[in-house]
């Protein structure tokens, strides 16, 4: 299973990278109903930082992030979908205890790690870009001050031109 396929299923909700219950169930080779059933039977294993249920606004947001989240699929559901963080996905594999779930856990973890690396590299890139922007801003401010000084001197010369003498003058000392 290519990690990229799993990584495309990971969406950002409440500033956390999560997998939808239907996507996680498909990866683990079980139905969404079975996954959610096992989660309900083991509530102590799924604290809010491992798994949570989406609000209606979040469902709309997930739809815009995830092309596989179809309106038709969500209309067939009686309940709002659950989403699982990286730790919740691992915990779901332990409660399902199927060979495919255990095998796919490795790929899920690798997909989350790959996304984390991408986000860190983007954060470093953003930091460097901000640093370059601040340096350019400082240089532009100093250039603006120099140009303003030149313009001020030119205005003074235009308003008060220096006296010019006509003809040849010789300095005799």
Rough shape?
Answer: rod-shaped
Helix content bin: 55-70%
The biggest beta sheet reads: 4 strands, antiparallel
Strand content: 5-15%
Residue ranges: pLDDT <50 for 5 or more in a row? none
What is the number of beta strands?
4
Cα-atom radius of gyration: 32 Å
Name the quaternary structure: single chain
How far apart the termini lie comes to 97 Å
User: If helices are DSSP runs of H or I spanning 4 or more residues, what is the number of helices?
Assistant: 7
How would you explain this protein's 3D organization?
This protein has 173 residues and is α+β, with helices and mostly antiparallel strands. The protein has a domain at 3-118. 65% of the residues lie in helices and 8% in strands. It is built from seven helices and four strands. The protein has helices at 3-9, 21-28, 32-41, 56-65, 71-76, 86-96, 99-159, and strands at 11-13, 16-20, 51-53, 82-84. A four-stranded antiparallel beta sheet has the order 1-2-4-3. Strand 1 and strand 2 form a beta hairpin. Helix 1 (3-9) crosses helix 7 and helix 2 packs across helix 3. It is rod-shaped, with a radius of gyration of 32 Å. The mean pLDDT is 81.
Q: What are the key terms here?
A:
4-stranded antiparallel sheet, 7 helices
Furnish the topology, listing elements before pairings.
Elements: H1 3-9, E1 11-13, E2 16-20, H2 21-28, H3 32-41, E3 51-53, H4 56-65, H5 71-76, E4 82-84, H6 86-96, H7 99-159
Antiparallel strand pairs: 1-2, 2-4, 3-4
Précis, in short:
The chain is α+β, with helices and mostly antiparallel strands and 173 residues long.
